[in-house]
Amino acid sequence: MPRSISPYDRKDSPSFNEFFKPAKEAMKGMPPLTSGCNRPLKMSFENQLKALVFYHLEEHVSARHLLQVLEEDDYAREHIAPKDGIKKSSFSEAVNTRGLEQFAFVFSQLQALADSISPQNYLESGNLVAIDGSLIDAVLSMTWADYRKGSEKAKVHMGLDVNRSIPGKLFLTHGNGGERPFVSQLLSSDETGILDRGYQCHKRFDLWLEEDTLFVCRVKASTKKTVIKENYVDPESIVFFDAIVLLGTLNVNQTKKQIRLTGYEIRGVKYRIATNRYDLTAEQIALVYKLRWDVEKFFAWWKRHLRSCFKTPLSEI
Questions:
Q1: Cα dihedral value 209, 211, 213, 217, nearest 10
Q2: In whole angstroms, what separates CA 218 from the centre of its chain?
Q3: Could you tell me the residue ranges of all domains in the chain?
Q4: Which residues, 6 or more positions from 279, have their beta carbon under 8 angstroms from its beta carbon?
Q5: Which pTM was predicted?
Q6: Residues of the chain with pLDDT under 70
Q7: Cα–Cα distance measured from residue 276 to residue 260, given in angstroms and rounded to the nearest whole number
Q8: For residue 151, which phi and psi values (nearest 5 degrees)?
Q9: Minimal CA–CA distance to 41: which of 28, 30, 32?
């Protein structure tokens, strides 16, 4: 009787081996994964990580499909699945309830490795981090992921290292989690956060200025300003404004600290940028803000690449 999925005749998978090699190295020194009860683990963390990598690399459509491949595919059965195989209940328990500490450790090690070997761009502008949040569909077990009635979503808050085009720190909250509080946590002291208008908050600006948190943030065109000092603007430049100001309305939401505000126009669209980067020209600030779109492109690539995971979470077996 023919099987629904024909096993591959391969004895090796160079693409998987190359893809998994850095993760294998990253697991060295990892906190051990132990069973939470008297029963021995049916699936080690390495098996779990291999299965997830294999799931996305091979573009399987569901966990059920993956488990069938782990049973029928010669290579997957020998190199991906646990020695004695894995049943649906054990696999579901593994991917839903354990391994978070180990995943965090592996992620930090891989991020550090990528940071050390990736070429850097835009060095004249310093260390740049594009910050944004994005919603992802929650799996059934994520009952904490409130968003709206009948819809559970989580939110990823991430800082993308623009110089190296790799993700840095990230945090996960329920779908309604605020984004502004994570800015300071996503940035190191020598990094500049690049933010869109959703992060505009004059109290936060004062706080970041007090903390010496560097930022480049677009503000709304309707934002009131009190000019303290105007800087020279080249009439041939895309820049139409550059000054030291107080943002907001007096006795309402005005900043207590002075801040730099620049304005430039691209293809008929005017951008107004608040920043405490006084060392950059207004044209450089315009370029820095343009690089914020890298985080949007990353989220788009991420969701497109992991589309099967978002459509059919591994827990829904």
A1: -40
A2: 20
A3: 14-107, 119-190+297-317, 197-291
A4: none
A5: 0.77
A6: 1-11, 97, 138-145, 150, 305-317
A7: 6
A8: -145, 120
A9: 32
- List 132's β-bridge partners, or say none: 158
Residue 214: both structure tokens together: 């560097």
* Residues constituting the chain: 317
Identify the pLDDT of residue 1.
39
Map tokens 């966990």 to a residue: 63
Measured distance CA(317)–CA(315) in Å, rounded: 6
3-state secondary structure the chain: CCCCCCCCCCCCCHHHHHHHHHHHHHCCCCCCCCCCCCCCCCCCHHHHHHHHHHHHHCCCCCHHHHHHHHHHCHHHHHHCCCCCCCCHHHHHHHHHHCCHHHHHHHHHHHHHHHHHHCCCCCHHHCEEEEEEEEEEECCCCCCCCEEECCEEEEEEEEEEECCCCEEEEEEEEECCCCCHHHHHHHCCCCEEEEECHHHCCHHHHHHHHHHCCEEEEEECCCCCEEEEEECCCCCCCCEEEEEEEEECCCCCCCCCCCEEEEEEEECCEEEEEEECCCCCCHHHHHHHHHCCHHHHHHHHHHHHHCHHHHHCCCCCC
Cα–Cα nearest to 236, from 210, 208, 264: 264
Q: How many CB atoms lie within 10 A of CB 198?
A: 12
